[in-house]
Amino acid sequence: MSIRLRLTMWYTGILAGTLLLFGAGLYFFLHYYLYDQIRSEMQVQGNKTYQRILPVYSLRGSGLDLLLDDTDVLSSSYYTQVYNFTDNTVSRSWLLQQTRTTLPVTQETKKLLQEKESFFEKITLWDEPFLVYNKPLFLPTSGGGYQIVGVLQMGTRIGTFEQFFQLLQYILFMLAFVAIFAAATVGLFLARKALMPIDKVIAAANQIQQGADLGRRIDYNGPYDEVGRLTHTINGMLDRIHAMYTELDEAYRAQRRFVSDASHELRTPLTTIRGNVDLLERMWTRAAEASGEGNDGHDPEQLQLSLEAMKDIAGEAQRMSRLVGDLLSLARADAGVQMEKAEVELKPVVEEVARRAAFLDRKAEWIVGSLEALDGVRVTGSRDYLQQLLFIFIENAFKYTPEGTVTMDAVRADGQIGIRIADTGIGMEKEEVPHIFERFYRADESRGRTSGTGLGLSIAKWIIDEHGGSIEVMTRKDTGTTFVIWLPARFQAALQ
């Protein structure tokens, strides 16, 4: 739910509550005030009439005559009557005499007369609402108490007032509805207008995010209110981010240039060193062989030591060459170099790698399992980089498997082809797995004693990402490690 809608609902709800309280207060105040006036007038008139009634014993038997005065009968504006409980006779005012009607006296009325000094009740007479004032008539008894001998009733029509209050309810409800609707409409318009600068801020921020242009700024020409301060703060934050990003980008570009340039510069002298070392190694080998046959005066032991030194130099130069090559590959990856890709039939690539892997320096047994899953499989990628990828995992398996086996096979699953390379070597702890693709990471001391640059798996991860694949790792300490290289593939029916 948007802020403008929440704001509109909030102040519409507050307005509705305010109107409800105001309307209810006005209604009940008028209701109480008008009916209080009517009750007060009826009580005053009823008390006057009550004072004029003279209960006397009739000479006709033991009956009691309770009669209205002529003033009550002729001039009263209320419907007045006196009901005599002793003989169930009724003395009525002129208005009731004209209508030939009596006010009802129910058992409930008689019960309330026993409990209250006077009370009001609403009745329906002639299909109209009436308000009736009831006041009991007492007669002293011989025992010193009082006996209710009748009731004075005074009624008045209240239909006009009831219609007025019904109309008032309707008017209040209609006014409240119209006011709430108008307030919600105008409030939504005002909220949209007030929050429009925030929409501009959001739109500008989205353009900056989508376009990756940190040089853009949010245009705001309004007052320096909350939105203005927010815009100013965001623009200031973008200034700082832009400056920091520019510095980092320049430093990153300088680092990439350094690695790339250093790799290129180091390859030439390393090539020269390796060439000269190889030449010297061949020369010293021939000299050592001639010395062993007694053809010259060189010391055979010194020649052997020199030969071993040359081999050490050659080995380190070869190691540095691999390191420089790896650094150059990573520099290309950091620079965003896109490898050239084409549709490649995967099985010949894997078979070639399997054949050449048999000639690598190793102590473990090399086993090539079933490659039938590769029949008719094509991938979009680079043949050379795919071979490099497989060699990285195979060489790693040979390094960390001083004895046992290294196996390679292929599997299919969910439209992907998986090349599995498993060893029975030293394995890893599960805590080490998330870090093995980091540059220069060596898992433990035993790995530290194993030759390597620590960059192979980083390069492998880059090659896998460039091919849209993934890597699955399963390992256990002192048991072995299994890597499964998953690549998106297109499967074709194998040729018969």
UniProtKB/TrEMBL annotation:
Ranges annotated as spanning the membrane: 12-35, 167-191
A single MF term (Gene Ontology): kinase activity
Keywords on record: ATP-binding, Cell membrane, Kinase, Membrane, Nucleotide-binding, Phosphoprotein, Transferase, Transmembrane, Transmembrane helix, Two-component regulatory system
Domain of life, source organism: Bacteria
Database matches in SMART domains: HAMP (SM00304), HATPase_c (SM00387), HisKA (SM00388)
Matches recorded under CDD domains: HAMP (cd06225), HATPase (cd00075), HisKA (cd00082)
Coiled-coil regions listed: none
Membrane topology listed for this record: Multi-pass membrane protein
EC supergroup of this enzyme: transferase
Entry EC no(s): 2.7.13.3
Limits of the Histidine kinase domain: 261-491
InterPro entries: HAMP_dom (IPR003660), HATPase_C_sf (IPR036890), HATPase_dom (IPR003594), His_kinase_dom (IPR005467), HisK_dim/P_dom (IPR003661), HisK_dim/P_sf (IPR036097), Sig_transdc_His_kin-like_C (IPR004358), TCS_sensor_his_kinase (IPR050428)
Name assigned to this protein: histidine kinase
